[in-house]
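User: My advisor, Dr. K., asked me to get a structural model of this assembly before our group meeting. I'm new to this, so sorry if the format is off. These are the inputs:
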Amino acid sequence: MEEKNIQGRRNFFRKSLAAGLMSAGGLSVLNGCTKETSEGGEKIKVMTTDGRLVEVDSTSLKSVSTEPAVGAEARKGIPGRKFVMVIDLGRCKNAGACTTSCQKGHDLAADQDWMKILLLRNTKETEPYWFPKPCFHCDNPPCVKVCPVDATFKRDDGIVLVDNDRCIGCKFCMSACPYSARIFNWEDPPESEIEDVEYSPETSVPAKVGTIGKCDFCPDLSRKGELPHCVTGCPNGAIYFGDANEDAVSNGEEMVRLQTLLTDRSAYRHLEELGTEPRVYYLPPTERMFPYERGLEGLSEEEMALYDDIL
Amino acid sequence: MMRPNIHTYGWLNCLFICLVATAAINPLTAQDSPLRVYMYLDYFKTDDSQYLQAELKYREDGGFKQLKGVEVVFTMTADTSIIDLGKKTTTADGLARLDLSEVAIVADTLGITQYEASFEGNESYKSSSKDIEVGVVNISMQTEEVDSIRRLNIMATKQVGGNSLVVEDLDIKIGIERLFGLLTLSEVSTDEDGLVQFDFPIDLPGDALGNINVIAMTDDDDDFGTVKTRTKVGWGKPVYYHANEAPRTLWSRDAPLWIIITVLFLFLVVWYHYFLAVNHLIKIRKL
Amino acid sequence: MENSVFDQLLAKFKDPISKPSSSWWILLVAMLMIIAVGLFALIQQIVHGHIVTGMRDHVVWGVFIVNFIFFLGIGYAGAILAGIFHLTRLQWAKPLHRIAVWFSLIGLCVGPIFIFLCVGRLDRIHYLFTHARIQSPITWDVMAILTNLILVSTYLYIAHIRDFAKLRDTDVFDLPKWKRKLYNKLALNYRGTHEQNHRLNRAQNGLAATMIPAAIVADSLLAWLFGMSLRPGWHSTLFAPEFILVAIYSGVALLIVLMWFYRRKYQLDNLMTNQHFQYAGYLLLLLCLGFAYFTLSEYITEWYNINETHERWLDKFLTIGEFGIMSFAAIGFAIVIPLIILIIPRFRNAGSITVVSGLILIGLWLKRYLIIVPTLETPHLPIQDIRPEYVNYQATWVEWSLSLAGFALGVVLLLLLNYLAPSIPVADIERDDEIVVPKPFYKTSNE
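Assistant: The format is fine. Below is the predicted structure of the whole assembly, which you can bring to the meeting.
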């Protein structure tokens, strides 16, 4: 159980410890504090090291299940977490590995992009850059505001999820999302390799025709201490993911302090002026690992035509 | 967007034809020859355990795959005698782990032990083995707080021939545990006394109680493998997590009161007048 | 019984109340056939999913929602017009009152069907009630549409009671036995006593006064389905008033078209005089100017406050390859041509006003299309997709046949209402003639 944290990235690929975690029955959010849960009350009074007496929510002391949550539990969020993503635009070369590993992880069809890479250009004088676009999991989510049946919801851990057992497919959230992050299951999902799994909003699998799908920040993996598919899929470490409460984000290769990263690299949020408070930050492409043209290599004429307006 | 590529198909066709041809010419050799197995062996030591871990992989379709469900034999060599440590079967992740905590480790005069892991091979996979030489290092970590400076005192020692010796120039990584792994704070080396100090930052968030798990470890050291020690210290800023109980916002489950009041008011006004009208109709009928 | 002028009037509606003519039947069957095609398309959509429509991830709603807005607009406008006609006791509008109520009900019945067609999981439609979130404009709309539907149907019923009583008692034409029984039930024992009369008036006044604000609120909610989003072209405080004005504009245009049709069909020249067309024409002119004002206001403010996305959005209305032709058609049909015809007295007659009204209806349908599709095709982030159907919306045969089926259903409902009651409130006109108007103008011959 300990090794997982120590070994860092190497062990993400050697999943033994994740298995160990699961056998241990749960990953304690706050190591050593689980015994306090016996108090049973809503709030627990604890003494901090600097001598202050503080009240702590008893839910924050519970251990976290490593299994994807279903039903009402899936609407609560992982206690104590505030998930956040940081995307370094300087490291993206349109490799598309985030998109494909996301599709693989969520059993999506090849034309369903929950993670989509766009080519953007701020002005005619500045260089274009590749822009990976997941769902921004806004803290003021326009999509959730308009849902008539509470099928999409904002959790305490910051994640916006869709419950495909509830969704009526009115598509109002799609029209409300200013970032076009949501996609619709227009037809029956393709034959799945993943069979007979119980549906969980945390895994978004299996998909259902006539309902909405979108990037879910892979909370099922977070429960196991693993990074989202797009993060581990990216060959260049462009995508960082972590818990803002811990002030740490990891791209699978290195873990850095969130505040330091955001400050040092002048992070911004896309279309901040809309007031949606995204949980995805972008680092401007100041230190480019690749010229943007690298992302155009090997594209068909048809694909090149997409960028006519930009280039 | 994945689109079928004519070259892919062409290549697959060639492969198919070759396979068919091979099978037709000599049915006896149609089966693939055994695949090469890549083995990695690592030594791990924590505060309460130490173990060997072998990882087995093979190449297929241009990528590595974990080799699961095969037996790995572990041995320990000291001087010239080979001591059998036991067999372990690899997991779904291709890992075989041998617990050393109950093993009386035999070391040479320099305190070094040689371990070997071997896989004898079968009809599908070739045999493979790997050996490593590691010594046992003990890393101890004390916390001290002097005049608002929080300091970690780390010391590395090793046992050689019954004597405790300090280990100098040992690269040690200091970090804290996070959900997705280790947040490295610093990488330091021990001095000639086997000591190193580290001043702990004051602004790191801890858990709800301000506790942080601090780690000092060697990271796959050539001489000592991966050895780590862990200690919990209340040096973090407590992060109070409040599960927001049903906020009344536009985006939550429960609506702001003004919306409910407005809608109810409109609804009541309309339906009040409606039932007035219906009441008239009922009376008309009775007249 | 004396064969009064009103009995003669009622007798004009022998077809279809007493005995539908063959043309009534032919029209009914033709419309039912169109509906059958629509049902076939609906089955395709249910079996294969929404993939058979032209709707995709960016244009998530297509002509379905255009029709939804169009029909609901008509429905709300009918309620507002009927309410105003009734409350103001506008004498010249009396013969038009029933037409307005009728198309109000038709609009409110047909409109919601189109929103159901936009829903991916019709099997879960009851979640709208069992899991309702009151913050969602859809929930408001569900409540508003249902409320208005009930209000308008009840109002329609109240406005028919005197005629039902008249039909129950009439001997100007034969009625099948079941129909006589039906009228007997529907007439609620109404015999025109003072108290019955008084109570009926009270009921109708109350409902009319409720129906007008309810329709205004409901049409605003319809606008807010779009106005509450952050999209350029939708996120506008102007949206709700514009929707209401456009709805009433289309309602008046439809009223004129139906008036022309009924005048011709039943020779109602002395009830629907050329003067009626002139008055309705003035109203149309006023609304046309209002519409022009809103349109100008909408585009010019966008033009001055342009950012990159707004620019892409606005450009689409001016580019021939995009929505240029459609937006010029919408403006031509709903603003330019009506202004020319309605302002110049020489051009203004029953025929031309009716033609203009027809054009306005087309123009306003196109306007709704222009509200929906270009905006959905212009999100904040560019659409970089090699699948052309995901970039530009193109309605499929499924959507067109279901749209046609919707219009056909409207006609069927109109035919059925015609079968139930005369298209003018005969008893109300008779009553007003006795009580209110000493010498009504419609008794003098036309011109």
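One thing worth pointing out at the meeting: Residues 1-8, 20-30 of chain B have pLDDT under 50 and may be disordered.

User: Perfect, thanks a lot.
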